[in-house]
Amino acid sequence: MTDRIEAAAAELRPLLQDFILWVRENAPGTDSNLVGPVALWHRLTASDDVSRWKRADLRKVLLERMPQVVEDPDAAADGMVPALRAYLTFLSETGRLAKGSSSLRDLLSELDRLEDDFVDAMEDLVAEQDDEDYDEEDEEEIEGLGDFEPFADELAELPTIRLRPDAELAEAVRKAPLIGKARDLALWVGSERRVGETSLLTDAEIAEAMAALGLPLPQDDGRPLSDRVPALWNIWNLAIDLDFLQPEGEDTVGADPDAADWPFEDDDDALDVWMAGLHSVDYGDPELDDEDATIALSGLTRALLVRVLLASGSRPLPELRAELTEAAAEYDERGAEAWAAATAKYGDPLNPVLDWLAGYGMTEVEHDQVRLTPLGMEGVVHLADDADIELDARPAIDAMTAFDLLSFSAELPEEEADAEFAAWMELREPAKAAGELLEAAAEDDADALIRVQAASMVGSLGEVAVPAWRDALGEPSLHPYAATHLAQLGVDDAPPPTQADTHWLILDMLTISAGLGRPEFVSSLDDIGTASSLVGLLDVIWKVPHPHLEELLEAIEQAHPDKQVGKAAKRALFKARSAHN
Fold first, then answer.
1. Strand order in the sheet with 369-372
2. Which residues form a coiled coil (predicted)?
C-alpha cells in the first residue's frame, strides 16, 4: 500500500502544484493543502484517473474514507469542502476534468448535498478526540483570568449589540498607533536582517529600533538590555502577527513588501490586517520580573474587555480596578502578590492593559470612564465568538444593508424581524428600499430563504414596490414572485404567473422546509396535496431549472411514506439529470 500511495502522490504532484497557483488568482482564501488528501484517496479508492470524478466518488471519499484518515478534523470541517469545490472548478475550467466525469454542475450539487454530513462526521471526530483528551486529563480544568466562559450566560442576555459598517471601522484601523509602529519596525528591519539565538537583536540594534519607534531606552538595572525592552518585543511580535515581518531563512527576517504601503486604502485589506493582530490584546497583560507573577496576571486584558462589554461598552475605571483586583486573587494563589508587584512597577496594573488597547484602537478613557470604541466592540464580539460564545450582534440600523437585514431577519422570531424591518424602513424611501431588497435576494439564486424573506418584506410595501417588482421580472429566481405580486396588485400590463412560476414557488417552499428537518419536510409535502396530486406534480416539476431540484427529488424519494410518490420522484430525478447533462 505504501508503494501505491507514493506512486499516486507522485502522479498528483504536478496537478496540485498547478492548482495552488490557480487558487491564488481564482479562489483566494482557499486552503489548497486540504485538497491533497482528498485527491490522493480519490485516486487510491475511487478512480484510476486522477482527473476523472463521478458524483459517487464524492460520497466514497468524503464520507467513507476521510473520517478514517483525516489528521485535523477541525480544519477539515472548516475548509475541506470549499477547497474541493475550488479543485473541481479548477479541473473543469482548465480542461483537466477527464472524459467520463460527471458535469461540474452535478459534482458541485452533490458536494453541496454532502457538505452537512461531512461536517457532522468531522465534528464527531473532534468530539471523540476531546473526549479522549478529557479522559487523559486527571486534573480538574481551572478557569483563567481572561476566560469568557464564566460570563457566557450574562453575555447571552445582553441586548442587541450594534456594529458599525466596515468603512468606519477601517478608517479607525488606519489610525491605530500600534499598527503604525509595527510598520515602522518592519521598515527599520529592512530585508535579510540577521537575528541572534538568545537575543534577536544586538544592544546597538535594540537602541536603533527603540529610536525608530520613538520609545525611550530603559534605565540600566544590571540586566541585559534585551530583558528590559518588553515593549519592543511586543511590537516585534505584533509585526509578525500582521505579516509585516516575515522569516527569510533560519536566522534572517525581513519586512514584507506590502508593509511600506500601510495604511492600506482598501477597507477589506485594512480590516484583514487588524483582525490578524486581534489576539495581540494579550500583549497588554503586565510583564513582571517574576515569571510566575506574570503568569498570575495573564488574561488581564481580556478580563477587562469582557467586563466592559457586560456593562454595554462603558464602565468606571475604579470599579474595574476593584473587580479585577479581586478576580486576580481568586484565579491564582499568587494573584494578590502579582497585583501588588504590577502596582509597584506600573503605578496601576491596568495601565499597560489600557495603553495597549488604546494603541490598537479598542478603548478610550475619559474622566475615569473606560469605553469600548466601535472597533473595540467589533473586536470583543470576535473574541467571544472565538470562545464559542454567541452574542446577538448585528450591524447598526443606519449601516445595515438590505442583504444584512434579510440574513439576520431570517434567523429571528417573526415579531423581532418585523421590528428590525420597520426600523430599517424608517431610514429609507420605500420604493428604493424595495429595489435594494430584491437586488439583494437576487445575489444567490440558491438561497430560497433569503428570497422568500425579501418577497414577504417587499410585498408588505404595496403599490410603491411595483417598479421594483417590474425590474425583478428579469431575474429568473425572482420572476415567479414578481409576476405573482404584480397580479395581486392588479397591474394590467404585467405578465400573468405561469405554471412554471407556481412550481418554482413550491420548490422554494420545499427547500426551506427540507432545511428544518425530515418531519417538517414531510409535512410540507402533505400540504401540497394527496399522494396522487404529488405524483402529478412530480411528472412535470422536473423541468423547472431550480438550483435545489435534484436534491429535493432525492429527498422526496427517501422521505415520503407512499411508494408511488417515491417512484415518481425517482423518475423525475432521472429525467432532470438527463436534461441537465
1. 314-316, 369-372, 363-366
2. 97-131
